[in-house]
# Entry
Amino acid sequence: MQSYVLHLECSKTGAVYSANQIHNLSEDGMPLLVRYDLDRIKQELSKDSWCVRSAPGFWRYQALLPVSNPASKISLGEVITPLIPLKESSKLLGGKPENIIVKDEGRLPTGSFKARGLALAVSMAHQFELKHLAIPTNGNAGAALAAYARQANIKATVFCPDDTPKVNVQEIQLQGADTYLVNGLINDCGKIVFEGREKAGWFDVSTLKEPYRIEGKKTMGFELAEQMDWTLPDAIFYPTGGGTGLIGMWKAFAELKELGWLKGKLPKMIAIQSSGCAPIVNAFDNGLDHAPLWDNAKTVASGIRVPAAIGDFLILDAIRQSDGCALAVEDGHIINTRDMISKKDGLLLCPEGAATAAGYQIALERKIINEDEKVVLFNCASGLKYPMPIANQMINTDFQINYKDFS
Ligand SMILES: *Cc1c(COP(=O)(O)O)cnc(C)c1O
# Structure
């Protein structure tokens, strides 16, 4: 397998770094982005030939992925995630069934799209022969790191806020990572990971603080383009925490555009946050380039409880370049929307995914989009990982059952 990687590039200054050694941030403290030899790809491959259909899931896009040693590809059976139209609930959201489509990322290994990013980060860690990885997480990233690190036989240490959903913490520990609860938020966990790099001897795989998670996340963009016959939707609603997925997809679209493989225009990128933690919405509304820290972050959508994002300027750039926007959604609206879509369409979204549907409703009301525009909503994790309403209708077999009650 050959790699088309040219080098890494500082996302702020454009300074070039060698791809032959492992990096965290650039010398300016900014995320590094992987650059590929797109001219050579254009000469050697075509839109139809570049997807290796025998490879599992996103590994088919290997020409635009950084792993060069096939033995370092760490896989847990990734799948192409389905596009599911909201047949009934779309009407209650105010749109048309054929125009509101959910990309259900809950089908990936470890039940969330964090599998994409961590599969790539762990594969590259394996290629560089790293022995110990550490991560701050609201749950899903830690679970994905734990699982892929076990596959690669690399040690993993995970730090979660102490109010992270229990099922997340337990799955991380069960999948073999050293797991710690921290009395703080994800940025406090991030501080521990950063400060321990030398003393504990681990490599920091925080969001955007190493260059490869974003390469995994960008495959959502490739997959969407391939599934939609290389014509993208009018808008993408993305539940935004650290923003890797949004920045990653925007990077994927830029690469495909440059290769000449996309038809039509690029989608509006719409970042959805909870009104209890909306630093990107605040920065977007106030015309800022960076997002100030959000105090007292609180939301049921734990995956997007990120008070400060190192890639904030990249998220804001992508939103603005795409003519998109950032919208905040109330927690009550998120949960009602999740419950409604489950009941109407049998599709159990995670709260973060439900937030995108609620955000769609707001975007329609504010005429940011109209019902004739095709949109894709990202459901980033399995709804099964989160608390659900109680179900307690009992049958007592000591008494006669009145079957008329069921009709
Ligand atoms: C991590 C996560 C997000 C946020 O993704 P980013 O790309 O980091 O912004 C959204 N939803 C869920 C379920 C997550 O686990």
